[in-house]
Amino acid sequence: MKKIIFAFAFASVLWSCKITGSSAASATKEIVQVAIDLNVVKDDKVMVTVTTPKFTTDQVTYHIPKIIPGTYSVDDYGKFIENLNAFDAKGNPLSVTKSDDNSWVISNAKTVSKITYWVNDTYDVESTHDIFSPAGTNIEEGKNFMLNTHGFVGYFTDKNTIPYQVTISHPATLFGATSMVDTDTSATKDIFTTSRYAELVENPIMYSKPDYTTFIVDGMEILISVYSPNGIFTAESITPEMKTMITAQKNFLGKFNATKKYTVLLYLTDVKGNDAHGFGALEHPTATTVVMPEMMPKDQLAEQLKDVVSHEFFHIVSPLAIHSKEIHYFDYNAPKMSEHLWMYEGVTEYFANLFQVNQGLISEDDFYARISGKIANASTMNDSMSFTKMSANVLTKPYKDQYLNVYEKGALIAMCLDIQIRESSNGQRGILDLMQKLSIVYGPTKPFDDKELFAKITELTYPEVGAFLATYVSGETPIPYDKYFAKVGLTKAKKKVPGNVFLDGQTPYITINPDTKEIVIIPEIELNDFMKTLGLKGGDIVTAINDKNYNLDNIYELIMGSQTWKENDAITVKIKRDGKEQALKGKVKLTYVEAEGLQATDASKSKIKEAWLKG
């Protein structure tokens, strides 16, 4: 999972990912039948009816997930379930007792025929909980329903491996985008069948006004569905960049082709009201749910989607094709976590950056800047904590506080392994080759034992790879990054990079007048060169830039848009000073900050470096 956090006005993207291995459909005739009616919305809730299988016990427990794979967060989705009732075949009510936030015990279970309950959504009450938006739910009558299925459908104890059939009734004006196959031809009803509960959980559905595109990449069907409440973006408007990105990913992966259909569900929030505010994506084996601010400029949205969706897409490698028993047999209400987040999230995040330089989407310097940024971010975390220990205990403190390091140090672990394998094989092999071999040994339906993975990796690679894992991943020794950069002829170097013209680090130059929503230059502080060059002064009220009006409602757009400004771009800033309006015209003068970077200094290592970046 990965979050993007906007400090002051910067959005913060949380990325999160999850996956569960699939299995063949059960041979038994038992089935759980679920009906969800999106035509009837009461108090922002929808009704779910579950026709139960037969039970042989006197009591049975119905569970809604406490946690789902990949979020690494206890979210208690059962808190959004109301008025759960059970009935026998004649419609007589049965006794139901709520045993905890996510579980209901039904008495006289041998006679139970169905249960009903109402589901509230998470998006419009995000101030009351910490559920990551792409893992949440939305109910907006007649407009949008984000059905992350774990928020609507649960499972009975010992019945989560039998098939599920889900029937969804919906307005004819709404289209349900998903990777599942609808077996009903009606325009107002969809029927989906999965082999077990875990498969259902891994297949989100977004109902909205039809706005989607499809295309084929190397035999894989891609569906892009977009919900833009104010009509600012369409699926067609973002598809060219998405097609370029996914084509590059498929070229990079080569032999990997774990799925025939992949769906991207993009929910754009207007941010202003009671709507989703957790920006990022949640991965599934054949889909990704993405939440982004609708006001984000198109080029920045495309850039964010490239990074976020590519990360989620690469989970078709791990954990889809390679995962432990903890993931394969995931317990949604009493989970055991795997030791190998460095692989599930770290290798995935590394691939999401490496493929871009490998396929020519970014330059080598851009790639080095990203790696340097990860080193800087990782340095703020506990560098001597065992990564495997942190991973296995990530739901509890102090380990949960280190979770975000899976996207920083986790990716750096993957990078160092890649470089080590390249050096040991004289450039012929890398970490992608290792992952391909692991997928052959294991695969989607054959999970590994956590404690056996390092030995298998060492067997498939080199002794020095095993030594690295023991020392720096399960061990508590910080990684000497300079040692691994030297293997590819790189050394650290200070570089000047553009900063943000409205921020000095995390300190803003602007604030908000809460009474008027106006953007104000903070008085009595030393202004930067951008502001001095234009003649801005403390206390000035910024009303518009380049003929676009700004205030509190769209300040995110201002901050994000300023990231695209170039040195010497023409700019006009309209202000109010001492009650008088005026326009300040000039050219953009960016502010620069010193940052750690990398540069090639040893030509003798160019062969290994070339294999690392382009092999």
Please provide a written account of the structure:
- By secondary structure, the chain is an alpha+beta fold.
- The protein is built from 15 helices and 32 strands.
- The strands form seven sheets. Strands 1, 2, 18, 19, 20, 21 and 22 form a seven-stranded mixed beta sheet that branches. It has a seven-stranded mixed beta sheet with strand order 7-6-10-4-3-14-16.
- A hairpin with a 3-residue loop joins strand 11 (138-140) and strand 12.
- It is globular.
Topology of this structure?
Layout: E1 2-5, E2 12-17, E3 32-42, E4 45-51, E5 59-63, E6 81-88, E7 93-94, E8 96-100, E9 103-107, E10 112-120, E11 138-140, E12 144-147, E13 155-156, E14 164-169, E15 175-177, E16 189-194, H1 197-201, E17 205-208, E18 212-217, E19 220-227, H2 235-253, E20 261-269, E21 279-284, E22 287-293, H3 298-313, H4 325-328, H5 341-358, H6 364-378, H7 387-392, H8 409-424, H9 431-441, H10 453-460, H11 463-473, H12 481-487, E23 490-498, E24 503-504, E25 507-508, E26 510-512, E27 519-521, H13 529-534, E28 541-545, E29 548-549, H14 555-562, E30 570-577, E31 580-587, E32 592-600, H15 606-614
Parallel strand pairs: 2-21, 3-14, 19-20, 20-22
Antiparallel strand pairs: 1-2, 1-21, 3-4, 4-10, 5-9, 5-13, 6-7, 6-10, 8-9, 11-12, 12-17, 14-16, 15-17, 18-19, 21-22, 23-32, 24-25, 26-27, 27-28, 28-29, 28-30, 30-31
CA-based gyration radius: 26 Å
Unreliable spans are 5-28
The number of E-state strands comes to 32
Kindly, what is the distance between the CA atoms of the first and last residues, rounded to a whole number of angstroms?
28 Å
Assign the structural class, choosing from mainly alpha, mainly beta, alpha/beta, alpha+beta, or little secondary structure: alpha+beta
